[in-house]
Amino acid sequence: MRVTALAGGTGAAKLIRGLAAILPPSHLTVVVNTGDDARIWGLHVSPDLDSVTYALAGRLDIARGWGLHDETFNCLDAMAHLGAETWFNLGDRDLATHLFRTERLTAGEPLSAVTAELARRQGVAALILPMSDDPVRTRILTSDLPGASDGWLDFQEYFVREKANVAVIDIAYAGAGNARPAPGVVDAIAGADVVVVCPSNPVTSIGPILAVPGLVTALHDTRARVIGVSPIVGDAPVSGPAGALMRARGLPVSPLGVAQAYGGWLDSLVVDTRDATLAPALRDLGIAPVVVDIIMTDHVREVALASVVLDGAGS
Ligand code: FO1
């Protein structure tokens, strides 16, 4: 069974680990959001590509959901002493990834090639693809920071520096209009048996992927069963600022809002048992509900949910 997962954010890494435990690596492709990418200390950081790669390499700090386990922050401390900005915590071993990536991008290599090389050198056999080799950057409009230039924040300024504690007026995916799907992305969606939309923030983790011209069409046209996992339980996200971002986009903060965000191309949505009452409404939207406990508290639960997702795709 060939599976292509759309992923972004810390919630995706858990399901990706579950899928990797039950699929041959050559049958798993992950299309990853790059809207969170940022330039930190002059280095190109790709948080979601790194979370997925580290998760599949068994190197991810699972508790944090990002960065490497057994990490140290000596360089960060030294940068703080020099008065550099240190609100974005780059660990010493994590820095190697950003140095490696930045050197190769500067030499003209596309992000997809650098990502493949980073995966290969960390022993990851699954195919990890950025959604695009062209720059797409998620930006957040807020009125809460008079100092911010015209009110627009880069994603990491919003999510990390401001800790998502500012009101969200709107969201933009800068550069999306000129972005092309990275090599292999359209084929990975068209040629899959199952496309899995991970339990990621529909607006800022999956949204940028959908903003790349051609990818929504690919999702509509694929012969694959397309199944999503709701990142929302009840009226709140399992973690992170998805609620505020969905509201800013006029989406109800519920699994129905997730279904609305993926309008028309989603075949099935996995929702938590606490949302069982939404099953008829999902069916009315032409989406087959799969009702299970979706909270992944450990690896056993990650594998169990991945199995449900692949079985659910078959139903
Ligand atoms: N998230 C934080 O909340 N604080 C950090 O200092 C931080 C550093 C960081 C460094 C590398 C990296 O790959 C991710 C990092 N993240 C941090 C997480 C990151 O902001 C998020 O994973 C995504 O952008 C949201 O999906």
- Counted beta strands: 14
Assigned CATH class of the largest domain:
Alpha Beta
Q: N-to-C SSE series?
A: EHEEEHHHHEEEHEHEHHEEEHHEHEH
CATH superfamily placement of the largest domain: CofD-like domains
Please give the CATH architecture of the largest domain.
3-Layer(aba) Sandwich
Largest sheet: 7 strands, parallel
Ranges where pLDDT stays below 50 over 5 or more residues in a row are none
Heterogens: ligand FO1
Integer count of domains:
2
Gap between N and C termini, in Å? 14 Å
Tally of alpha and pi helices: 13
Structural class, please? alpha/beta
* Morphology: globular
Computed Rg: 19 Å
* CATH fold-level label of the largest domain: Rossmann fold
In order across it, which strands form the biggest sheet? 5-2-1-9-10-13-14
Query: Mean pLDDT, nearest integer?
Result: 96
What level of helicity do the residues show? 25-40%
- How much of the sequence lies in strands comes to 15-25%
Write the layout of secondary structure elements.
Layout lengths: L2 E5 L1 H14 L5 E5 L5 E3 L2 E3 L1 H11 L16 H8 L10 H15 L4 H11 L5 E4 L6 E5 L10 E3 H7 L8 E5 L10 H6 L3 E4 L9 H5 L3 H7 L3 E5 L2 E2 L2 E2 L4 H7 L6 H7 L6 E5 L6 H6 L3 E5 L6 H16 L1
Parallel strand pairs: 1-2, 1-9, 2-5, 9-10, 10-13, 13-14
Antiparallel strand pairs: 3-4, 6-7, 6-8, 11-12
Ligand FO1 binds next to helix 1, helix 2 and helix 6.
